[in-house]
Design brief:
The protein contains 5 helices and 2 strands. By secondary structure, the chain is mainly α. The chain has a single domain, classed as NAD(P)-binding Rossmann-like Domain (Rossmann fold, 3-Layer(aba) Sandwich), CATH 3.40.50.720. A two-stranded parallel sheet has the order 1-2. Helix 2 links the parallel strand 1 and strand 2. The longest helix has 15 residues, at 2-16.
């Protein structure tokens, strides 16, 4: 049962910590609506858009700095790797 709400709890924790640009990719309409109520900055429905491509567009091809996966299934884990910015890694190494 916690897994169902883990993503929403993560959003709340990020916002409470002062994070900006919190982007949510959620298939469930119910959880998308809840994400709006707890002030996620961008909410994507992966049934309507290619989330990876949309995130690239929104971030000028930089990707995100941090990605959390609350579903714990292989397709979402693989998509997370594609969303995370490689720019940060390059800055830290050079």
């Amino acid at each position: 049962m916690l897994q169902r709400w883990l993503g929403l709890l993560t959003i709340q924790a990020l916002k409470a910590a002062g994070a900006s640009g919190v982007l949510v990719v959620e298939l469930s309409e119910e959880r998308r609506n809840l994400a709006r109520k707890i002030f996620a900055d961008v909410i994507l429905n992966p049934a309507e858009v290619d989330a990876v491509q949309e995130i690239k567009r929104l971030t000028n091809d930089l990707g995100v700095e941090v990605s959390f996966d609350a579903a714990g299934v292989e397709p979402t884990l693989n998509a997370n790797f594609k969303k995370v910015s490689i720019l940060k890694g390059n800055q830290q190494n050079g």
